[in-house]
Design goal:
This protein has a single domain (2-196), classed as outer membrane lipoprotein receptor (LolB), chain A (Clam). It has helices at 2-16, 25-28, 116-128, 131-135; strands at residues 37-44, 50-62, 65-75, 83-90, 101-106, 112-114, 139-149, 152-161, 166-170, 178-182, 186-194, 206-207. The longest helix is centred in the N-terminal third of the chain and has 15 residues, at 2-16. It is built from four helices and twelve strands; from the N terminus they run H-H-E-E-E-E-E-E-H-H-E-E-E-E-E-E. A hairpin with a 5-residue loop joins strand 1 (37-44) and strand 2. Helices cover 18% and strands 43% of the residues. The chain is α+β, with helices and mostly antiparallel strands.
């Protein structure tokens, strides 16, 4: 479960590199507008490549706070199968611990809504983990570079994280900002982006219980 949460937060973290020199960079990481999406070819731990699509598939207001549904859709993953994870979160990465809902669908199985005690545990996990704030630190700017990927050619800022042994190329012109990121056990490359994203889950999710 923790790995899925980190994957969902990954493009938001990459966006932090855009303001890595700012002491309040975590507060500047924003979720893209509803409908925006970015799709990547992903390779983790030298396994077979598969597709990951990050998208904002909806928005709603609760308690006077604007929230967005952020979706991670993984397809072609031979090890774990096709998966969709959706999180209803505030628009700032600094508030990702305030998850309102989580829905998951694995392959052809029914979509499940995580609620009750399990949702409370996930909130605490997101609040406590230092993954986001860590990547706002220990990141150095290598310089401006033009990078060509399957989605096209982009003017980017190249950042390096000694802490995580990774290099990232980011651009504010693309939803979720990430153009490419390469590390010791992963590589994500942008293959497309755009507007008009809709939810990959069309059924009414069942509750997992745990009240």
């Amino acid at each position: 479960m923790k790995a899925r949460l980190v994957l969902l937060a990954l493009p938001l973290v990459s966006a932090s590199a855009l303001s890595a020199q700012s002491s309040s960079c975590i507060d500047q990481i924003r979720v893209p507008a509803v409908g925006q999406w970015a799709e990547y070819q992903a390779v983790f731990k030298q396994q077979e490549p598969y597709t990951m699509r990050y998208a904002v598939v909806g928005g709603e207001s609760r308690g006077g706070k604007a929230l967005k549904w952020v979706e991670l859709r993984m397809t072609g993953n031979k090890k774990d199968g096709d998966m969709v994870t959706q999180m209803l979160v505030p628009g700032s990465a600094a508030e990702l611990g305030d998850i309102q809902e989580v829905v998951m669908k694995h392959g052809d199985k029914p979509a499940m809504k995580i609620d009750g005690r399990m949702l409370m545990m996930m909130r605490e996990q997101m609040k406590k983990q230092s993954f986001l704030t860590d990547l706002c630190k220990d990141v150095t700017l290598v310089g401006g570079e033009t990078v060509e990927v399957p989605a096209g050619k982009f003017k980017t800022q190249h950042f390096r994280s000694a802490k995580y042994g990774s290099d990232s190329w980011v651009s504010s012109k693309v939803p979720f900002s990430m153009i490419k990121t390469v590390g010791t056990d992963h590589e994500l490359t942008l293959v497309g982006h755009g507007d008009g994203a809709e939810s990959s889950i069309t059924e009414e999710p069942k509750s997992m219980g745990g009240h």
